[in-house]
Amino acid sequence: MSTRRTLLHMAAALAVPSTLTTSLVAQDTAPLTLPDMPLHDPWIVADAAPRTYYLYTSNRERMSGQKGIGIMAYRSHDLIHWTKPSVVFTLPDTIWANAGAWAPEVHSWQGKYYLFVTLHNEQMPLPGSTSAKPLYRRGTVLGVADTPAGPFTLVRDGEPVASKDLMTLDGTLYVDPKGEPWMVFAHEWIQTGVGTMEALPLNADLSAKGPPKTLFKGSASPWAVPQQGTNVVTDGPELYRTSDGALMMLWSSWGKDGYIQTLARSKSGDLFGPWEQLPMLLDKGSGHGMLFKTFDGQLMLIVHRPFKNARGYLYEVRDTGMSIELIRQRTDLDFDKTPLAPFKP
């Protein structure tokens, strides 16, 4: 048993003796804590009925014990103790893609759970490819399951939601005030030079209903620094409606100190803005964050950092009505020895 976990269980037992048995059971069935868990592009679903948090990320064989490209999920009841991950989606070898499994998101829609995941195949060139700038198929596809635990099976044989000629990634589900679904996604900078955030209208079966529309360019943010010349990265959109009805978008890019977690707000409250770029939330390698609520109602942000060999970090978040702000890092949950404070412009 690690020193950290020994102290954790001793503290729990001294504070509330009746929790000792529960804590020891958690140690046996959920032996991991966030520092033990390699992850990238984390996504958490809080499933109320079994009071279980599912934390999704790309499959790592040394963690799941299962080979292959796919998505695995850690599980927890308290955001401290996590199970060894199980694979909830495996990429079939019969479809167009042969790599990726990035940025998994799981959303409830019409009684099912839908996995949004980005796949690619570098051997399938797209129109416009040149030897200097090869373009290849990359797109967000859907899987479906009856529960957040999966397993997820591909929808429409794994064809991307958006046109296969577009290099799309990090698709997320947004449902507008009329109940209409949209997929908001990042249009890859490899294809556009300056990456964009775009919105694709969807039918009830989450198939494309029409062409996508641009929401904003990555260069709109003063915190996004061009890479390799004039290229600007757009990553990881997530939409959040505040208590006063303001529409926010969390998204990531590259700043002067590496990967960043930044924020935008629609001035109209509508998906099509116009969008204003707010000060970023975190820098120094933090990014691809998402918001979720704990079972006691606390709004939380999870991000990964650094970009390579990343781990998950948790922050309490305050909904101010017109925006969101970070309150504090929950080092009691993520055990970060060098906590990173929110960015101050």
TrEMBL record:
It comes from the Bacteria. It holds the Pfam family Glyco_hydro_43. Pathway: Glycan metabolism; L-arabinan degradation. GO terms for molecular function: hydrolase activity. Residues 1-26 form the signal peptide. CDD domains: GH43_Bt1873-like (cd08981). Keywords: Glycosidase, Hydrolase, Signal. Belongs to the glycosyl hydrolase 43 family. This is Glycoside hydrolase family 43 protein. It comes from Asticcacaulis aquaticus.
